[in-house]
Amino acid sequence: MKRLAAKWFAALLGALLILISASGCGLCAQSVGRLAAAAGEIVDAISRTRLTDGRELMGERRWGEDSFTGEYMAGCQGFTGQEIIFGGFGEKKTLHISGFVRARSGRAAVRVHTGGRIQELALSRDGSFSADIPLQRGGDYIEVTYSRFHGRIELVSEYRE
After folding, report:
1. Average pLDDT for residues 12-17, to the nearest whole number?
2. Nearest to 50 by CA among 8, 97, 98, 109
3. What is this structure's pTM?
């Protein structure tokens, strides 16, 4: 799926460059801005296809300003699986991810995919976590993996200023 999204992005970028070069000087800055905005919306829509659909989530996701930010809360009773909560193709920014995992039994882990690497966020003794994650401008995702998890998880993802 990641390769497919990258191919779509490359094709979209190529088409945008062809449109700009074919129109020469007749294309004003405003039109370029509209094309770039439209291309950004298409890339965002493609990148959201990797996220777990809201109807299939164990909990509730509340979107923030884009597909990287928001809140997620879930209560689970023996769930095993994976949910991709936030992410996509975005700008080079830094995300602050925080929250907690309260396990009665089983295991839940918050993992971040960025720059071809997977980082599991460390939990403190009380189950809380907090990390600043620099996005790599393509294919960055926050997921929660569960193994026979009974408990509650909450996470917040927001941009670090």
Report:
1. 58
2. 8
3. 0.74
At how many degrees (to 10) do helices 29-48 and 2-23 cross?
A: 170
CA-to-CA separations, 37 to 17, 22, 41, 52, in angstroms, rounded: 14, 19, 6, 25
Greater pLDDT, 42 or 86: 86
> Which residue in 97, 12, 91, 81 sits closest to 46, CA to CA?
12
Alpha carbon of residue 148 to chain centroid: 24
Beta bridge partners of 129: 99
pLDDT tens-digit map of 95-104: 999 999 999 9
Token output for 75: 């209560």
What phi and psi, each to the nearest 5 degrees, are found at residue 59? -125, -150
Calculate what percentage of the chain has a pLDDT beyond 70.
72
SS3 (DSSP) at 38: helix
Query: Are 154 and 98 in contact, with CB atoms under 8 Å apart?
Result: no
Can you give the C-alpha Rg of the chain in angstroms? 18
φ/ψ of residue 37, rounded to 5: -65, -45
Could you tell me if 89 and 9 are in contact, meaning their C-beta atoms sit under 8 angstroms apart?
Answer: yes
Q: Is the pLDDT of residue 7 over 60?
A: no
